[in-house]
Specification:
Structural class: mainly alpha
Distance between the termini: 66 Å
Number of strands: 0
Order of helices and strands: HHH
Strand content: under 5%
Helix content: over 70%
Radius of gyration: 24 Å
Number of helices: 3
Number of domains: 1
């Protein structure tokens, strides 16, 4: 009886660890590609507005797609510049 409970516990632990690993991968994916996901949702909303008869609103929301992507590129570029400068300053301090 005790061995069965231990085996069941181990199986449950393995399943939970697998689910946690999958959730971490999903979160990592969303953190990396959130601008693309937001742009795609905006695009689908724009198409939905257009075909439901709200053409002007659909065009307005459709303009959000390149704006979201451009803003994300700008943020990512500034973040990369910051980390490069931070790494260079640490490397410079080590040489002294």
């Amino acid at each position: 009886m005790l061995n069965v409970n231990v085996e069941v516990g181990l199986v449950i632990k393995k399943i939970v660890n697998t689910k946690i690993k999958i959730m971490k991968q999903v979160i990592f994916y969303l953190k990396l590609y959130y601008p693309v996901v937001l742009s795609f949702i905006s695009f689908l909303y724009s198409v939905g507005l257009w075909f439901s008869g709200y053409q002007l609103e659909g065009i307005f929301v459709g303009i959000w797609v390149p704006s979201i992507l451009a803003f994300a590129i700008c943020i990512r570029q500034r973040r990369n510049d910051y980390y490069r400068a931070l790494a260079a300053s640490k490397k410079f301090k080590r040489k002294r």
